[in-house]
């Protein structure tokens, strides 16, 4: 099915096969209704997962949107439920691991030193407000620190697919469907 030995070209070739055969969600449901079609259904699901993900210029399949992560999760679950063996089972397990890795929460470090510096300065305001018995300075430091701490967590902690999206969006040759 693949004409090249270069793994970077495989996603593009698979996408050509998908567009020629028309592997859609409706087509997959048609296959699901056929008796003894587990292997064919698993292949169709695997092809659908390829068309769902984005492709970088290097030919790497990536998930850069929540819909892609959720869709690949459903596909991996369905493939594993079919009880396929061999390469299809390996593909489904690898897809499951990729989905789980994409959903991991990670910290980003862009702009973090500035936020930490501002939080430290607000802590100094709290200390000075307490030392000089100034309720206004104490409250201002506390509110500023709480707001900045909230901003730090919201801005710096994201799921891995979100960080990947920020990094590879300019490098995409195709966004998944």
Describe this structure in words.
This protein has 177 residues and is mainly α. It has helices spanning 10-21, 25-32, 38-52, 66-82, 87-102, 112-131, 135-156, 160-168; strands at 54-56, 61-62, 105-107, 157-159, 172-174. The strands form 2 sheets. Strands 2-1-5 form a 3-stranded antiparallel beta sheet, covered by helices on one side. Helix 4 (66-82) packs antiparallel against helix 5 and helix 6 (112-131) packs antiparallel against helix 7. The two termini are 22 Å apart. The model is unreliable at 6-10 (pLDDT under 50).
Q: What is the CA-based Rg, rounded?
A: 24 Å
Count of distinct strands = 5
Strand content: 5-15%
Overall body shape: elongated
- Helical fraction: 55-70%
Question: Stretches where pLDDT falls below 50 for ≥5 residues?
Answer: 6-10
Order of helices and strands: HHHEEHHEHHEHE
Distance between the termini: 22 Å
Integer average pLDDT: 79
What structural category do the secondary elements indicate? mainly alpha
Q: Largest sheet, if any?
A: 3 strands, antiparallel
Record the SSE blueprint.
Elements: H1 10-21, H2 25-32, H3 38-52, E1 54-56, E2 61-62, H4 66-82, H5 87-102, E3 105-107, H6 112-131, H7 135-156, E4 157-159, H8 160-168, E5 172-174
Antiparallel strand pairs: 1-2, 1-5, 3-4
Helix pairs in contact: 1-3, 2-3, 3-4, 4-5, 6-7
Provide a compact summary of the structure.
This protein is mainly alpha-helical and 177 residues long. The protein has helices spanning 10-21, 25-32, 38-52, 66-82, 87-102, 112-131, 135-156, 160-168; strands spanning 54-56, 61-62, 105-107, 157-159, 172-174.
């Amino acid at each position: 099915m693949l004409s090249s030995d270069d793994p970077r070209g495989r996603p593009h070739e698979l996408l050509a096969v998908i567009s020629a055969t028309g592997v859609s969600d409706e087509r997959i449901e048609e296959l699901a209704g056929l008796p003894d079609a587990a292997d064919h259904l698993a292949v169709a699901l695997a092809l659908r997962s390829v068309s769902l993900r984005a492709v970088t210029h290097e030919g790497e399949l990536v998930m850069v949107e929540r819909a892609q992560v959720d869709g690949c999760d459903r596909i991996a679950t369905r493939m594993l439920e079919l009880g396929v063996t061999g390469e299809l089972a390996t593909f489904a397990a690898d897809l499951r691991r990729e989905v789980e890795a994409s959903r991991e929460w990670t910290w980003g470090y862009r702009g973090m030193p500035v936020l930490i510096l501002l939080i430290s300065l607000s802590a100094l305001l709290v200390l000075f407000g307490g030392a000089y018995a100034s309720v206004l300075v104490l409250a201002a430091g506390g509110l500023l620190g709480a707001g900045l701490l909230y901003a730090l967590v919201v801005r710096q902690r994201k799921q891995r697919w979100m960080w990947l999206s920020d990094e590879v969006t300019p490098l995409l040759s195709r966004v998944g469907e």
